[in-house]
Design goal:
47% strand, 126 residues
């Protein structure tokens, strides 16, 4: 059974950094595309970043390019999201997602991912 568990969220000030972790179990990380999405109150779930299965190629949403970095530790079965220069508009619940059959054109579509974590809150405020 695939399980994803996020951690590392919290309250930070603008300009701060934060690292989110997604512990994975029940899957071989290199066989699954893993991604981070976020959802702010009253808004749709937004694609943040993804690691493509096998190749490990990374993809980012336009709003986080150059500030966020997705990576994975295969030995620990953890996917990370390093977030730098955080802004108030980054405030959201951040979700980890995974799927083994995703096609590239569906990378940013949350409905195409089969497995989800419970989410972790990130609040950026002065």
């Amino acid at each position: 059974q695939v399980q994803l568990v996020e951690s590392g969220g919290g309250l930070v000030q603008p300009g701060d950094s934060l690292r989110l972790s997604c512990g994975t179990s029940g899957l071989t990380s290199t066989w699954y595309t893993t991604a981070w999405f976020r959802q702010a109150p009253g808004k749709e779930r937004e694609f943040v970043a993804a690691l493509w299965r096998n190749t490990g190629r990374t993809y980012y949403g336009d709003s986080v390019k150059g500030r966020f970095t997705i990576s994975r530790d295969n030995a620990k079965n953890i996917v990370y999201l390093e977030m730098n220069n955080l802004r108030p508009e980054d405030t959201a619940v951040y979700y980890c997602a995974a799927d083994s059959h995703l096609i590239l054109s569906s990378l940013t579509t949350s409905q195409q991912y089969d497995y989800w974590g419970q989410g972790t809150q990130v609040t950026v405020s002065s």
